[in-house]
Amino acid sequence: MRFAINHISAPKLPLAGFFAMCRRLGVSEVEIRNDIPDVLGAMTPTAVRAEAAAQGITILSINALYPFNLWAGDLPDRAQRMADYAAECGARALVMCPLNDGNKVPHSEVVRALDAMKDILHERNLTGLVEPLGFPVSSLRNKAEAITAITEAGADGTYALMHDTFHHHLAGEAGLFPNRTGLVHISGVTDPGVEVDDMLDAHRVLVDGGDRLKNISQIRALLAGGYDGPFSFEPFAEEVHNSANPEAALRQSMDFILAALAEEGAA
């Protein structure tokens, strides 16, 4: 397996420092964000591209277009501007997240939104990474439903799934769909007192021996099923964001995952 790192893993580092940390960790693939931290609001795409080129970094994606499945209001304009930024900075994909506020979105609207996004993505040679969110309030919890919508919109390679180990566990979905997956987000939950339906982004830490999300099993199954892309760290917990040494914390998690995979494989 190979690792990637989402900037949210070390959000207090400026982009150049984040890229440098990734290279020291042996990682050359990253994700940048428009929230934590808001790189899109702070830097021009030209500056991002130049920094990535200088440090030998590949930008896998920009997180995230939300809510992609409500194609109304300012969303079309935001989608186009984000896609323009992605193309100009050298990113390969846009992460697309569904409405997550308890309101339902009809399946036909999901298909309509994917239809509307296709030309925007295709014209800029971008992939749309559709990320079902496993929260009970999410309007698109399951990957199977996302695949159905992608297929109805025309499965021409414009879209792929974002498999998130946290959201997969919350949704309770058995199917993994490794051959339809374009990228994997990994994070763990170690708090023993929170029920699965009550897990939130704030609980998401780096993967270690206390993980309750079965990350190792998910990773092994994805690899065994043919997924050959990177696994990108995406922790949201404040304790991770405030770490005095995010590089050491990430290295420790990487070492744990690799050792656990090797141990399980030997068994």
UniProtKB/TrEMBL annotation:
It holds the Pfam family AP_endonuc_2. Residues 20-257 form the Xylose isomerase-like TIM barrel domain. The keyword Isomerase applies. GO terms for molecular function: isomerase activity. Keywords: Isomerase. This is Xylose isomerase. The lineage of its organism: Bacteria, Pseudomonadati, Pseudomonadota, Alphaproteobacteria, Rhodobacterales.
